[in-house]
Recover the amino acids of this structure.
């Protein structure tokens, strides 16, 4: 069998790598119109002439000076794994900046193929690139692509495959003296196996630039001879050119790029201001930006609740009720235990979670729209000011927005943060963000207590959602502020986020994203949540002799034992206690647990809940659900990303404390104010 042929997609953030990866391999990886969507390496396959070609999607990077975790993943892969072909994806509208990475790829002897992506957009902006000329000047093949329209993609793969035997070395001319010095350093790096022969030249350039990441990779401190050469070289450049070496080298690189650009790019300046700038004058406006962001999130929750849950969800609820009745009539003569399993655990437990599928569909459709249109990047940009005011890094805002889908994704997105301090804070505060798995809990209670109530034009339930979302952000920001003043004291780092042009999302990509997320919600309900429901169902029917599902069952006794702790928050019943315990596994399971312990054939769950809670204690319960503990999946990712069980446990401990205190505060303050 032939050795596997590997093609890696490499390029600046947000240039369309994942879009190309998806059309090439038929995958459904997350695509979004903001830099930093992909933070992990992904693999897929494409068949070409009976050969399976492995395609690798990587996080975006601007250069080989990786500073954040996601960039390190990309750069390490290219340096160490040596894919057969590097497909350098370029955003044609920003070719100058994108070529900066290209030059470095060429300097490390990678077998480069350029994919000039987004040519549609470039043309709309009157930017025309002569790709034959570009190919000639850089001596690499160039293919024009439009990933979103699947154009040029076959050519991309056939060209990659057919260039497997050609590789021409590339050397940028930095001036005779520097060239000589670079060869000298590179020779030692290769001879002493400090890095691979191919990477040696680029590493030498980067060392002269005093690049921190490269110094770490080649362990410069341990190689005296190289270190001395580098230091001597840097001071020589300084004396000869009058500039620091990094400035001199970057300048040479840009001069080279500019020469290329003048020969193969034609820009006709568009006569009018483009759409993006017009929209941004309002959306990123100093005064209007933040209110606009909150308005968007407010509307998001209104639509999710009003249209998704109450309108669409109503149909699903009725359909499931009919199915439930049918199943229980089928089971009428079955043994009581079997009947209880079907009615309580399956229909009551898992069924009560599935009612929220329309809510998920709506919410993810809207979130995808915000991501794909380019608004997400603006949200981070405007929130940066707010974040900075409390000493947090602006990109933390991305974690907060992504986290409102799922906290695990939010935590993963902190990989784009540059310093360890910012990253740790981002990770530790992400679990406070109200994720979509909490929505079913809010929706259940809102259905019981705030249904059909309106505040002005808006459904009260939507306001409840929004208030919890705001509370999540508030607590996250406050916790971040405290952590940055106490545990993680360090100097401030700066936020740079490129604002991509607005793009009209393709319906296909919105539907795929919406479906992917909802599918995983349904799968989770059928597996993890179902598993938990089975366990608590067993605990609820034993010991034999005690009435199943009563306070005397094992489950009831466990709940009753811990319930007094929760009494000050207004929900000290064994059922609520058990639900919260189970919810540590997955927040949706809170709904499933109520569905199971309160299951009856006669009445809806909402109606039964209104017998056990007041509107005030229901709200306190929602606050608790929001804040009290990261779920099991979030715990696991905190452990993995911080590489420490201690920090993961810390996050559980401090959020339990915060969640409990907040719930007690809400309930007690509410009572004092005479609320019920
Ligand atoms: N008009 C147009 N849009 C494109 C094209 N390719 C990608 N896009 C859009 O560009 C945005 C970024 O696409 P991604 O595939 O997520 O980019 P990426 O390079 O993987 O980004 P990161 O993972 O953040 O580095 C998305 O909104 C895509 O829909 C293209 O050829 N034309
Ligand atoms: Mg990507």
């Amino acid at each position: 069998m032939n050795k596997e042929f590997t093609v890696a997609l490499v390029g600046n953030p947000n240039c369309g790598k994942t879009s190309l990866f998806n059309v090439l391999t038929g995958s459904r990886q997350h695509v979004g119109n903001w830099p930093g969507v992909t933070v992990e390496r992904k693999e897929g396959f494409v068949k070409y002439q009976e050969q399976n070609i492995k395609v690798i999607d990587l996080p975006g990077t601007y250069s080989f000076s990786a500073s954040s975790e996601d960039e390190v993943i990309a750069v390490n892969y290219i340096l160490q794994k040596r894919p057969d072909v590097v497909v350098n994806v370029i955003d044609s509208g920003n070719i100058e900046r994108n070529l900066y990475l290209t030059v470095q790829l060429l300097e490390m002897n990678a077998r480069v193929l350029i994919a000039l992506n987004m040519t549609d957009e470039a043309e709309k902006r009157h930017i025309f690139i002569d790709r034959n000329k570009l190919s000639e000047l850089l001596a690499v093949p160039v293919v024009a692509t439009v990933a979103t329209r699947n154009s040029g993609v076959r050519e991309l793969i056939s060209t990659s495959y057919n260039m497997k035997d050609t590789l021409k070395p590339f050397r940028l001319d930095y001036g005779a003296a520097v060239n000589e010095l670079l060869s000298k350093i590179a020779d030692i790096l290769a001879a002493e196996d400090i890095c691979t022969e191919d990477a040696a030249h680029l590493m030498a350039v980067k060392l002269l630039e005093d690049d921190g990441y490269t110094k770490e990779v080649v362990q410069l401190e341990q190689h005296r001879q190289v270190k001395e050469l580098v230091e001597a070289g840097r001071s020589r450049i300084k004396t000869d050119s009058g500039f620091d070496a990094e400035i001199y080298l970057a300048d040479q690189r840009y001069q080279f790029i500019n020469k290329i650009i003048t020969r193969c790019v034609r820009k006709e300046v568009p006569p009018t201001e483009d759409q993006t700038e017009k929209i941004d004058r309002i959306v990123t406006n100093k005064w209007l930006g933040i209110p606009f962001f909150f308005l968007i999130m407010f509307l998001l929750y209104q639509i999710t609740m009003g249209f998704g849950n109450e309108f669409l969800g109503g149909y699903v609820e009725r359909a499931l009720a009919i199915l439930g009745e049918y199943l229980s009539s089928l089971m009428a003569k079955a043994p009581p235990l079997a009947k209880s399993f079907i009615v309580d655990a399956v229909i009551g437990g898992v069924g009560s979670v599935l009612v929220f599928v329309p809510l998920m569909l709506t919410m993810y459709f809207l979130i995808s729209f915000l991501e794909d249109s380019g608004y997400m990047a603006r949200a981070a940009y405007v929130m940066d000011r707010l974040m900075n005011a409390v000493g947090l890094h602006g990109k933390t805002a991305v974690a907060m927005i992504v986290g409102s889908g799922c906290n695990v994704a939010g935590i993963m997105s902190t990989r784009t943060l540059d310093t360890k301090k910012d990253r740790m804070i981002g990770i530790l505060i992400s679990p406070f963000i109200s994720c979509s798995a909490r929505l079913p809990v809010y929706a259940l209670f809102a259905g019981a207590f705030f249904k059909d109530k309106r505040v002005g034009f808006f459904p009260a339930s939507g306001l409840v959602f929004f208030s919890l979302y705001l509370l999540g952000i508030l607590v996250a920001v406050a916790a971040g502020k405290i952590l940055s003043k106490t545990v993680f004291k360090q100097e401030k780092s700066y936020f740079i986020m490129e604002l991509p042009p607005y793009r009209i999302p393709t319906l296909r990509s919105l539907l795929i994203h919406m479906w992917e997320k909802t599918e995983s919600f349904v799968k989770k309900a059928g597996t993890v949540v179902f598993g938990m429901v089975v366990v608590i169902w067993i605990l609820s029917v034993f010991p034999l002799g005690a009435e199943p599902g009563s306070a005397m069952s094992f489950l009831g006794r466990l709940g009753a034992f811990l319930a007094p702790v929760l009494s000050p928050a207004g929900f000290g019943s064994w059922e609520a206690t058990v639900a919260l315990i189970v919810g540590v596994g997955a927040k949706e399971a809170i709904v499933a647990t109520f569905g199971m312990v309160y299951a009856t054939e006669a009445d809806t769950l909402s109606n039964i809940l209104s017998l056990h809670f007041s509107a005030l204690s229901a709200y306190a319960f929602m606050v608790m659900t929001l804040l009290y503990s990261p779920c099991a999946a979030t715990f696991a990712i905190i452990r993995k990303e911080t590489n420490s069980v201690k920090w993961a446990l810390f996050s559980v401990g401090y959020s339990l404390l915060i969640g409990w205190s907040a719930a007690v505060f809400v309930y007690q303050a509410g009572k004092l104010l005479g609320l019920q």
Q: What stands out?
A: The chain has three domains: 5-162, 176-267, 290-672.
